[in-house]
Amino acid sequence: MRITCPHCGPRGNDEFTVLGAADPVRPGPDAPLAGWVAYVHERENLRGSHRELWHHQAGCRAWLVVERDTWTHAVIAVRAAREAEQAP
Amino acid sequence: MADLAMRTPLAGHLKAGRHGRAEGTPGLHVTERGHLATAAIALRAGQQAALAAALRDGFGLDLPQRPGCAGSGAVELVWNGPGQWLALDSAREGIGRFGFARELAARLGAAASVTDLTGARAVLRLTGPAVRDTLAKLLPVDLHESVFPAGAATLTLASHIGVTLWRPDEAAWDIACYRSFGESLAHAVVEAAAEFGCEVTAG
Amino acid sequence: MNAPQRPAAGPASLSRPEAPTQRWRLKQGGLIDRGQALSFRFDGRRMTGHPGDTLASALLANGVHLVGRSFKYHRPRGILSAGPEEPNALVELRGGARREPNTRATQVELFEGLEARSQNRWPSLRFDLAAVNGLAAPLLAAGFYYKTFMWPAAFWEKLYEPFIRRAAGLGRAPGSADPDQYERSHLHCDVLVVGGGAAGLMAALAAGRAGARVVLLEEDCALGGRLLSESESVDDRPAAEWLNGMAAELASLPGVRVMLRTSAFGLLDGGVVAALERVSDHLPLPPPHLPRQRYWKIFARRVVLAAGAIERPVVFGGNDRPGVMLAGAVRSYLNRYAVLPGRRAVVFCGGDEGWRSVADLAASGARIEAVVDARPEVPQAQAQLAARLGVRLVAGGRVLGTQGRSRVASVRFADAQGREEDVGADLLAVSGGWNPSLHLSCHLGGRPRWDERIHAFVPGDLPPGMGVAGAAGGQFTTHAALAEGAREGVAAARDCGFPTNGPDIPRAEDAPRELVPLFHVPHGRGKAFVDYQHDVTDKDVALAHREGFRSVEHLKRYTTLGMATDQGKTANVTGLAVMANITGLGIPGTGTTTARPPWTPVSIGAIAGPHRGKRFRPARRTPLHDWEAAHGASFVEVGLWYRAQWYARPGEAGWRDSVDREALAVRAGAGVCDVSTLGKIEVTGPDAAALLDLAYANSISNLAVGRVRYGLMLREDGFVMDDGTVARLAPDRFFVTTTTVNAGKVMQHLEFCHQVLRPHLDVSLLSVTDAWAQVSIAGPNARKILEAALDPGTDLSNAALPHMACTEVSIGGVPTRLYRLSFSGELAYELGVPADYGEATMGLLMERGAPFGLTPYGTEALGVLRIEKGHPAGGELNGQTTARDLGLGKMVSQRKDCIGRRLAERPALIDPMRPVLVGLKPADGSAPIRAGSHLYAPGAETHTANGLGYVTSACFSPTLGHPIALAVLADGAARVGQRIRVLDPVRNGDVEAEVCSPVFVDPEGGRPRG
Amino acid sequence: MHYSIFSLLRNALSGNRLWTPAWRDPEPKAFYDTLIVGGGGHGLATAYYLAKEHGITDVAVLEKGYIGSGNVGRNTTIIRSNYLLPANTHFYEKSLQLWEGLEQDINYNAMISQRGVINLFHSDGQRDAFARRGNAMRLAGVDAELLDADGVRALVPGMNMNDARFPVQGGLLQRRGGTVRHDAVAWGYARAADRRGVDILQHTEVTGIRVEAGRVTGVETTRGFIGARRVGLAAAGNSGRVAAMAGLRLPIETHVLQAFVSEAIKPVIDTVVTFGAGHFYVSQSDKGGLVFGGDIDGYNSYAQRGSLPVVEEVMECAVALFPAFSRLRYLRQWGGVMDMCMDGSPIIDRTPVDGLFLNCGWCYGGFKATPASGWCFAHTIATGAPHALNADFRLDRFATGAVLDEKGAGAQANLH
Ligand SMILES: Cc1cc2nc3c(=O)[nH]c(=O)nc-3n(C[C@H](O)[C@H](O)[C@H](O)COP(=O)(O)OP(=O)(O)OC[C@H]3O[C@@H](n4cnc5c(N)ncnc54)[C@H](O)[C@@H]3O)c2cc1C
Ligand SMILES: NC(=O)c1ccc[n+]([C@@H]2O[C@H](COP(=O)([O-])OP(=O)(O)OC[C@H]3O[C@@H](n4cnc5c(N)ncnc54)[C@H](O)[C@@H]3O)[C@@H](O)[C@H]2O)c1
Ligand SMILES: Cc1cc2nc3c(=O)[nH]c(=O)nc-3n(C[C@H](O)[C@H](O)[C@H](O)COP(=O)(O)O)c2cc1C
Ligand SMILES: [Zn+2]
Question: Are D57 and D63 in contact (CB under 8 A)?
Fold first, then answer.
């Protein structure tokens, strides 16, 4: 698999580690426990286009939001997580 | 006050002399850049322009915005991730090197955080006709002139070791890793160059 | 070097006299060098061949047709093919540590001194006792083993299985470590061409001339593909001449790289092509400084698949007898290797293809006994050829069987009317059509498409970036291969930004090919093999059908069709055809199995490359490593690090002596320990404290500059992740440490917290682990030693540098950091020296510390000291413990958001009966307690449900003079002072212990503050 | 037809013409008492035990591909019960016991081979963790032995133990562990279930789950709607997708695990060996191929194939541990997609939907679980309540915190 890091260019997936789905949003500290349980554990686990968090661990060390097809393994889009989040 | 001898990261790990194929001119020359003053520069929020200006004014350096390197006199900058650079100074010596980070910090002020990394990296200088073929055995990045010209830099894995590779000029290729990995990287480089013949000179 | 050099056909007297053994060698032609003889051995018998030979061609030149035994029935087997599809001619190549089992003789280039042995036979190839299996064949039909061997149950492992295992398997693995070297390498290009036949060459030429970066891979040792084996001309020149011209031009193009002996074996996600280069396999030994093989990862923007096609055998009785050979292979042996595979031949085909062999055999002086063409109407050209050669033509015929002991002696066929007849023959050339080598087009999930025109599968939807040319796409004329190659080369170059019109297409044969489907001759004489190597017959396919294993995947798995080392290159499609015939579904309706990497088997060692033995993983060494080695340290692997474990001294009987001495030295005087491997992270920026407040369970923002705090990190699920220290060097600068093994994980986690959870924070993270040689100086004399070593003027008094404070000092002018913190429970400091000066500092400390008894200590003593103090480490931080479990519950701040706080509140994690950290000491004062033991109430039944906890760490405490341990124990606090049973059945341990506080030494904690 | 040496002989004498299909290929009925979704090992075993243990035979197994097309047909065949946590130890031990009598029970030789499973350790910390696990096993009545380096050397020849980057210090051995011929498990259960009246419906993909008033009433399939009183989900790597049809979101991610097989060679290793200093394990099949694998690829995937980094790591480990394997060749690589659970342990439970039952979360270790999983799931479906053996495999354990995290890896699916 090749992920095109927005900073470093296309790299093999051995340079990255994957955390998992990018969509779950961390609840506020006082949100009900059920929300926290869901955030940490429950996954949509899509077949098809899936947004994920990848870390360019052996490169620029950016956390990336990678949109990838879990069925074809095609990489659809890659953005730096920090920029993705900071965008207004 | 005690007088402490310094030891470069690869001292004892890089044997000077000819390795691998003994006939003909060596394909690869290796030396350690073991005496660099080294510092990390971390950009502070919103200070991009200020940092670039301070480096230009203070050192005559063009801050690489993407993977790349820049040099001016004895000072070099190598991109080391978004908002992070390695700064190297080859002019200072011995404990004088610890002044480099201090000077940087003073000149960059609020534009960046500076951390002294002197001695934290093992750095090899590679030259010779077989540099590309040697490096191809170690790392997956395209090193073709059209893609990786002088002034280019990259962060990647070489033989399972995280490295920074940059081309300060046409002839030279510098590769750095964490100091602790130095022996393994040096071994991998010399081994990969064996078929071309490899000449190691003391740095 | 790229193209075959047809050896100049000089007068015979000039070349060395032909070795008398090569009686089947043609006097002329071929791409072999008759001027040089190579001697080799097969099953001990000495023979000769020539450069340019494969082992198979050299064996045939010496009249050797019987080369192996089949998997199940141990049938005699010969050479079927001349390429990678070979199912039969598998040998053990070389010997000793270099033995290579199951090596295809058809792909082994002959070299001087080559040694090969037949395999899977006993006592000898000619007389193999296990051939009696053939008699029991009806019993041993597909899947027989699922139906028997069930009684008595215990006999399976003892009797049946060992017998089956010994009988199965082919060659023998080498008995010792592989002595050769292997390499990995990477290639980047615009256009990658797989296959150097007519199509691939044109593709490479077109793209190369356009200026693209081109790589061409050819599995064979020469360019040309089928052209090497056919008596064809290209551009009105003999094909070999044209090939030489092509090779020369490709070599002259700067952007083109041609790699011979290199197979593309897999197409992987992201378009990566994995390839294997056999650098030295054609030589007796790898030359100095060269590997045996090199594994390439190739990153190409476009791939042109020009891998050619593979001929299919036909399923008929006795089709496995040595002497039965693919018609195209016959031409390879005749034209390329100058070997006559038989003197009296029968040709069996379903189309024009086989007739080329008729012509070439005749031209080489063989007698054609008959041509059995399945077509009722044979085209005029072929009929005329038969007439001209005086060959008997059996139109609409079928071969029914073969006879002969270990080689074909006669062939039985039936004509269109069903009249049967035997003819004497020693060669039966068979052609059932060709299957495109489309494997690489399927590795990413592409499904092939059935093409009625050629009765074969062709590539279906192609993976992104791939084009197909020539026989690989089902275009079987040389002209089509050349034209499609050029077309695909042009298209690929254009896609990469190199527009071009492409080269002119050379003239070449373009005769239309006619073919009737010819897969199976039912009801023949003797066993009719579908998969030769796995001994799968047409009857097995029928049986699978009868038992309901009708889908192709069930057929494959039930009969093992296509699962041998050749992966069914010659078997899969015929197998489908036989099944499709029974079900009546037709081949497209039957479907096909999945082609997966590798295209041909790849040695495990090639992929491992140089990462083996001691170099399996890179090593990390601290700046003090050599100093430690010089001072007698034994090293232990901790993650990738080597750490000094203890320093043995003369007279010490074992490691325990050393460790006890070191630990006592710390408690009595002082010790120095290398802690450089601890993860060290510099956190800078105005929001550094805010980030650390999120990441650590306890508050960091209220830490004063110049102070250090113990920090506890949780995972988001509420369990403990890591611990360490946090030093505040400036309002916007922290220095944090992690455990050695978790350093990478913590760094990544902090980056996650920043970049993903708190992207707006202005903070930077930098690993500074390798910047510092860090040592712990611990013991009552620590301060005195430092005062003696540090540059004058440093105030180390409690007032200036209290416990849990830090400051900048210098040694020999080197800026150095000093943190007053203690893991050992003694007065202790950690000294961080820039790595370049670590070794010198160590020398200085030892010199200045000598009067105070400064003793280097290793990780074992470090472990003893921390267990004596009850500090959690590896055994306690096992990912299953919470802060509460470790007695650190109060550290989790309730006043702020931090990672892990909420889920740590889940009911099961605050259950008061959860095991918590306690200390243990042996009830009898001496019995050792071992980590991993389980805890039970004395007298309780020792089943799982009564388990109360387990021992997390244990050691002998030299300070106390008896064993101690840390454990987690249900209701632990309430049990202090009580007895507990410590069970360690895997080491026969069963002792009683007393539960105590986990802090064994200095429970008031006064010493570090002293 | 009953399988035995006699039926083999009788067939041998009559040209193997008497054999009949191993299972029928029936048309789906409009309604079944119980539907099992997924014709893998677990689904088929569940159907078998529903019929055998609970007399429930109005059952159909719905399989979208062919029987065994999922992980039961692509796993590395290892069985063992060397687990640490009591819930797992007892459950997997039940499974091992069922394996031990399986062939006679279902009249199918699945080549259960108790050749021993050894997990190597390379450090003191690993040794302590294995000791803890071995002790847990022994205290649960399961066999376990902690071997030192010499013990390991005697058991498995040909390993590089000393001159290694990570020398082998010892291993945890379970002699009753071993291998089972994977496809035979699917076929054997299918045949045995069929013989008890279960309908096995291949090429029948479930595309929807019908729920009315909080109760399941049947499933939509590619062959039409099939009604049912109870539905059990055993879709392994597709669990998340199938459960979503009933509105459930699971603590599961689907990941790919690769496996490899070498060319067949004469016997070289008699034990299942797991490396402790990298991701690699190996055994030798009866056919002679080395069957080996490593870690999951680490990213969500429904494609039954993996990528190169794992291939490389596995081969490196293979050679590091067995230097003579360097010259052997691998002939095929493939992948399977598995239901990686957030704590690495399975779920066999009811669901919030009446009549809908869930069996999932088997990660890369569910093959060995097949008999006990089927047995417990059948019990749970038949009685409406979990058996003691699967009582801890609850769906709500992530909310309560009673997680079953063998390795302490935390709530990240790809770390288990
Ligand atoms: C490479 C590999 C190696 C492994 N090695 C081992 C090992 O050595 N030991 C071990 O214990 N475990 C191992 N495992 C794990 C083990 O194979 C699985 O945990 C186990 O097989 C899962 O249960 P199953 O057999 O029921 O799954 P599967 O065989 O996957 O069955 C699930 C079935 O559900 C079907 N299905 C899915 N969706 C639908 C739908 N909508 N409609 C109808 N049918 C559907 C699928 O087609 C599939 O056939 C390994 C797994 C892999 C991939
Ligand atoms: N008459 C027929 O029915 C018939 C059938 C098939 C082929 N042909 C002849 O074959 C030729 C077709 O030319 P072509 O170029 O398409 O095929 P080719 O067979 O001539 O060349 C294909 C080349 O690809 C190489 N190769 C295959 N797989 C490889 C891999 N994975 N990695 C590296 N190399 C690999 C082979 O070694 C071979 O040299 C023509 O000469 C044609 O006449 C004829
Ligand atoms: C234990 C085991 C052993 C296998 N042995 C072989 C083998 O000897 N030859 C072979 O071609 N495939 C072998 N396979 C792999 C199968 O051919 C196939 O790749 C696998 O079952 C996955 O199916 P798929 O490739 O059709 O997707 C084996 C698979 C398993 C699970
Ligand atoms: Zn990057």
Answer: no
Q: Is the pTM of this model over 0.95?
A: yes
Task: Return d(Cα D50, Cα D234) in angstroms, integer.
Answer: 14
- pLDDT tens-place string over residues C650-670: 999 999 999 999 999 999 999
- Kindly state the tokens that stand for C531: 């998969």
Ligand number, closest to the Cα atom of C219: 2
Do C755 and A28 lie within an 8 Å CB cutoff? no
Question: Cα C484 vs. chain centroid, distance in angstroms?
Answer: 35
Beta carbons of C274 and C268 less than 8 angstroms apart: yes
Using an 8 Å CB-CB cutoff, list residues of chain D that contact chain A.
Answer: 240-241, 244, 249-254, 297-303, 307-309, 312, 342, 398-399, 411-414
A23 touches D: beta carbon within 8 Å: no
Residue count of chain B, please give it: 203
Interatomic CA distance for residues A20 and A37, integer angstroms: 16
**Burial annotation C700-733 (CB, 10 A radius, 16+ → b, else e):** beebeeebbbebbbbbbbbbbbbbbbbbbbeebb
Task: Name the closest-CA residue to atom 10, ligand 3.
Answer: C563
In this prediction the ipTM stands at: 0.98
Is residue C334 within 8 Å of C340, Cβ to Cβ?
yes
Nearest CA to ligand 3 atom 17: C563
Distance CA C303, CA C128 (A): 47
Compute and round to an integer the Cα radius of gyration of chain C.
38
CB distance C170–D288 less than 8 Å?
yes
Q: Give the closest residue to B82 by CA, choosing from C745, A12, A59.
A: A59
The DSSP code sequence of B89-156 is ESS--GGGGHHHHHHHHHHHGGGEEEEE-TTSEEEEEEESTTHHHHHHHH--S---TTTS-TT-EEEE
Angle at C155 between CA C152 and CA C159, to 5 degrees: 145
Note the residue count of chain A. Answer: 88
Q: How far apart are CA C222 and CA C357, in angstroms?
A: 22
- Tokens found for residue C27: 């006097």
Alpha carbons C481 and C202: distance in angstroms, whole number = 8
- Examine the pLDDT at C4 and tell me if it is beyond 90: no
CB atoms within 10 A of CB C114: 22
Contact C855, C945 (CB under 8 A): no
Nearest CA in chain A to C716: A40
What mean pLDDT comes out for the span B153-168?
A: 98
Measured from the Cβ of residue C888, the count of other Cβ atoms closer than 10 Å reads 20
Q: Please say whether the beta carbons of B89 and B104 come within 8 A.
A: no
Mutation target vs A (from C185, C268, C902; most A CBs, 10 A cutoff)? C902
- If you compute the radius of gyration of chain D from its CA atoms, what whole number of angstroms results? 21
**CB–CB of B124/B33 below 8 Å?**
yes
Task: Give the angle B88-B93-B94 at the CA atoms, nearest 5°.
Answer: 115
What H or E segment, with its residue span, contains residue C185?
Answer: strand C182-194
Neighbours of chain D (3+ CB pairs under 8 A): A, C
Beta strands C934-936 and C949-957 are: antiparallel
Alpha carbon D100 to chain centroid, angstroms: 16
The Cα C933–Cα C984 span in angstroms is 5
Output the pLDDT for position C126: 85
| Strands (E) located in C407-484 | 410-414, 420-424, 427-431, 434-436, 449-451, 456-458, 466-468
- Geometric angle at alpha carbon D383, from D381 and D389, rounded to 5°: 80
Ranges of residues in chain D whose predicted pLDDT is under 50: none
* Coil/strand/helix, residue D33: strand
Chain C residues in contact with A57 by the CB 8 A cut-off are 744, 748
The set of residues, in sequence order, having a beta carbon less than 8 Å from that of A88 and lying 6+ positions away, is none
Which ligand does the CA of C602 lie closest to?
Answer: 2
